[in-house]
Design goal:
Oligomer: single chain
Number of domains: 2
Strand content: 25-35%
Number of strands: 18
Order of helices and strands: HHHEEEEEEHHEEEHEHHHEEEEEEEE
Number of helices: 9
Structural class: alpha+beta
Amino acid sequence: MKNVKIKWANLAQNLLVAALFVALGFGVKAVPLAVGIGLSISLGVLLGFVKPKLKGSFFMAVQTEVWEKDIEEAIFKDNGFLKYCKNATENVIGNRVVHIPQSGGPGSVVKNRAVFPAAIRTRQDTDVVYVLDNYTSDPVKIPYLDKYELSYDKRSSVLGEDKDNIVQTAAEGVLYNWVTSPLDGTVILPAPRILSTTGGAVPAANPGAAGNRKSYSLTDLQTLQTKLRSENRWFEGKMNYLATPSGIAQMFPADSLITATYMAQVSPEERAMGLIARAQGFNIWGRSSVYTIGADGTIKAPGAVTAADDNEAGIAWYSESVEMAFGEVYMFAQIDSPTEYGDVYSFITRIGGRARRTGYEGIFLMQQAPAA
């Protein structure tokens, strides 16, 4: 015998609509009282026993556009420093490749030219082309029963964690690209651009490292300023430093009046973006991790295992010396999977970055030097 629950519910609905038509056509008083009572009782009984199946496709529809927008906004909100670089997103082709025409530069300027005719030059323009990196989350299943029987919204909880993870990983990838982009096929950040801290001895802060390191200090920021000025890469308001939690704590101790002065220069809106303070001409940003450098000077890729003699590092940069390009965010969703007995979700985002000069002008790292 077929299940007729849904049919009885439809019948009750039809009877109710019919009663409304009668009421409209002949007046409410013309509807027999017995019919009204009968409809009320029938509808009440039906609603008491009929429990419509709340399909996820209607009552719990997945707003993929909302999640996609949320990830895109979070990449820049949780990593506000990314707004202080050259944005090459408009040069992305097909959400995959960045293509930027590069000018060959101006010709020479001669004072009191005496040789004629002047030599004619041809400007040799070039192209910069690089591919965005793909970041994908592992597919995650929300079992069917969990959607309706748990007292909390498990889907939002699970997807929220995946969103945070892909945002964190994508931002770390951009940072890594800034100092390892092989613009000429061979060069990564030259060793002279990795400076060392000069403060007193403190325990190593990065997970997995051991021993003591020289602490960060405001003097180190001044050293970075001097280096950037010496290569004509200092422009007021466009200088940035991204520090680790230990770097912030050591340079800006909570009990220091100088710290209060530096932090007072940041507006509430800027602080919400992640800006910590302004010091020595730098916008000071904070992040849970920035770089890990091996004892041999190798800049380790994000997620690499930390050795005991590794050192953490922050980065100083002029906002026009680095760039990032954003492709897209897409959410995959399979609702009511017949093989998984639930819903399956995953994310993909495309983002990339590079240093804009072959010699990495405008970029320096400050690593914690080993200490006795």
